Amino acid sequence: MDDQTARLLMKKLKKYRKWAESIFINPVYWKVNGKPYFMAGFMKNDKPAGTAYITLGEENREEAFEAQQKLALFADLSSNIFIIGEARQKVESAYYINPLNTAVSKEGESIRRGRDAFAGLWEIQQKFNHLVKDFKYYYEYDVLTRKQIGETDLAKVQETANRVNMYQYLTLTTLLGSNMEIRAFAEFLESAEAGKKLAKHQLDFVKGITENQDVMELSLARLNMIVDEDLEKMEKLNYSYSIWKNKRIIDGQRKYIRYPK
């Protein structure tokens, strides 16, 4: 948004700020009855303390609540995509490629299955990186250029978030279902002559991803996915389910709206 718009909106918001709170304004807006509504937040100690949905003119409670459904959904899902994406993209490609370039002996069936499972994880990681990269480009060079979001943007962010969850699900089920085999592959890499050429942190990565199974099981449960053997069908089912879940979450956030009441 331009500086003048930001100053006008900030002037309104300062009336509702409490002691020691900071204010942020999301740069995108949603139009209701021709009026652009922006989402603003009040932060205290780097934690959300409340929200406001404001326009340049006079706010209408019903309009603001309609805008909240759209703006909060887009903001929450975009943020989640970027947070998960940033965490996963910290893993360098070499952590997968170099271990996979190590030749595996024909005798080690468990080791070969572990290598295959690890190769599957690398395939998921590449798809994930591509997905997040495309979304980031869309957000930075499309959304932030035009500022106004519409129904197509809500569909895109929900589809992307659902695909992120699918990749998280596939990663976790692979790590849990092939845990012993990946451990065998990691042990092979530690002992193999070729594996000795790997950097220690790359070996540690292959070993480390098999640990803390209880944490992985909890993360899988928190995804709360509808499971189906047909992954294409599963993605469609969970997209529909996520729309319902997201609406409940966004509806629950109304109690944090500080303005308008």
Report on the structure:
The protein is an alpha+beta fold. The chain contains 9 helices and 4 strands. The chain has helices spanning 3-13, 61-89, 94-100, 109-146, 151-177, 179-191, 200-208, 213-223, 231-252, and strands at 22-32, 35-44, 47-54, 257-259. Strands 1-2-3-4 form a 4-stranded mixed β-sheet, sandwiched between helices. Strand 2 and strand 3 (47-54) form a beta hairpin. The longest helix is centred in the middle third of the chain and has 38 residues, at 109-146. It is elongated. It starts with a helix and ends with a strand.
| Rg from Cα | 23 Å
H/E topology pattern? HEEEHHHHHHHHE
Helical stretch count?
9
Distance between the termini: 25 Å
Weakly predicted, low-confidence segments: none
What is the 3D shape?
elongated
Describe the SSE topology.
Elements: H1 3-13, E1 22-32, E2 35-44, E3 47-54, H2 61-89, H3 94-100, H4 109-146, H5 151-177, H6 179-191, H7 200-208, H8 213-223, H9 231-252, E4 257-259
Parallel strand pairs: 3-4
Antiparallel strand pairs: 1-2, 2-3
